[in-house]
Specification:
about 130 residues, about 80% helix, single chain, mainly alpha
Length: about 130
């Protein structure tokens, strides 16, 4: 029985480790957007978005990330982040960005989001059993 508890703790720590990496990255992304750094403005416009949308995107990102960070709302946060990342994937696909470095980056990040949640939340493991 002790081995099962230890494995559970290990999974929880690994899940939080993945989740913290994602949260820190997304908070950094929010900060850069919110500060409206010149690189963010030029990149946003190259992607076909007006610079006037940057603050809205930043706030949506922060709210979704905050929901993901708290255990009681983490599933809702993961769902919202998946939608946000889906928009990023579609945007990069639309303009013909490089597949593995740009288009699929949202997929990689979503795998970290859901992987972290899967490891730290038994409800998600029960919902999506990997056999």
């Amino acid at each position: 029985m002790e081995a099962a508890v230890q494995q559970s703790r290990t999974m929880t720590y690994a899940g939080w480790g993945l989740s913290v990496i994602v949260i820190l990255f997304l908070v950094m992304d929010f900060t850069m957007k919110f500060m409206q750094l010149p690189i963010v403005i030029s990149t946003t416009e190259q992607l076909g978005w007006p610079a006037s949308n940057i603050t809205t995107l930043a706030v949506l990102l922060l709210l979704s990330t905050a929901l993901y960070a708290f255990p009681k709302t983490s599933v809702l946060g993961a769902i919202l982040l998946t939608g946000y990342l889906g928009g990023a994937i579609a945007t990069h696909l639309r303009i013909g960005s490089a597949l593995f470095s740009h288009v699929l980056f949202g997929v990689y990040l979503a795998l970290f989001v859901w992987g972290g949640l899967y490891l730290r939340d038994a409800r998600i493991r029960a919902l999506i059993p990997l056999r």
